Prior knowledge:
Elements: E1 11-15, H1 19-31, E2 37-42, E3 46-48, H2 53-58, E4 67-69, E5 78-82, E6 85-89, E7 94-97, E8 100-103, E9 106-109, H3 123-126, H4 133-145, E10 149-154, H5 165-180, E11 186-191
Parallel strand pairs: 1-2, 1-9, 2-5, 10-11
Antiparallel strand pairs: 3-4, 6-7, 7-8
The structure holds flavin-adenine dinucleotide.
GO molecular function, one term: oxidoreductase activity
Pfam family, one: Pyr_redox_2
Protein name: FAD-dependent pyridine nucleotide-disulfide oxidoreductase
Amino acid sequence: MRGRSHESAQTVVILGGGVGGVATANRLRRRLAPHHRVVLVNREPDFSFAASYLWVMAGTRTAHQVTRPLRRLERRGIEVVVGEVDGIDPRRRVVSIGGREMAADHLVIALGADYAADAIDGLSEHGETFATLAGAEALARRVTSLSRGRVLVVTAAPVYRCPAAPYEAALLIDAALHRAGVRSRVSIAVHSAEPAPMGVAGA
Ligand SMILES: Cc1cc2nc3c(=O)[nH]c(=O)nc-3n(C[C@H](O)[C@H](O)[C@H](O)COP(=O)(O)OP(=O)(O)OC[C@H]3O[C@@H](n4cnc5c(N)ncnc54)[C@H](O)[C@@H]3O)c2cc1C
């Protein structure tokens, strides 16, 4: 086995600064010797905690309270690059970020999943989502100003990002409307694409 002084410095590039990417970066930084580089690349400068978007939607948290600057990771020795990943060339061990190439000895892809709201007619124009921070903020404005009407919480496919979220959303909207004293004038229904709640999670 070669001693550490002879070990060549390696660069690990982690694509995606969500929960997966940040947890991986922290774990690798703790385990790897300091001369190895850990680089995290993300589109936005901030990490935001998706599980708290529901509280943003219900008006009990602000967007600011559920986000943290990714640059804070630099204090721990993790390099942070903000930019759009637009290409991966595994043969050359190179990634492209905003058209600029970065070499990687090791690559972790943690880019998450994108939403395809346009796959359903009318959804983007008429629906709101709590699955993004901007969507949760838009919903908060609707929920906190609602005085009468009907709320539909809809899942369009049996597999989605968080099995509990639609049911949690309906209960949080229920609580918010109770607090506002308008619950009796608003009906809430959940329309689910799964045969029973939490099926995908094995419930
Ligand atoms: C409302 C809600 C509630 C949830 N509640 C829970 C819960 O209670 N418990 C639980 O375990 N899970 C929960 N989840 C699911 C959990 O949030 C996800 O499983 C988790 O965020 C996935 O992490 P990830 O790192 O794989 O992807 P993401 O969090 O999606 O992170 C991917 C990152 O990559 C970036 N990115 C994507 N493409 C590019 C690109 N081309 N260039 C640069 N950057 C890019 C994105 O901007 C993002 O920052 C919830 C999700 C939602 C929406």
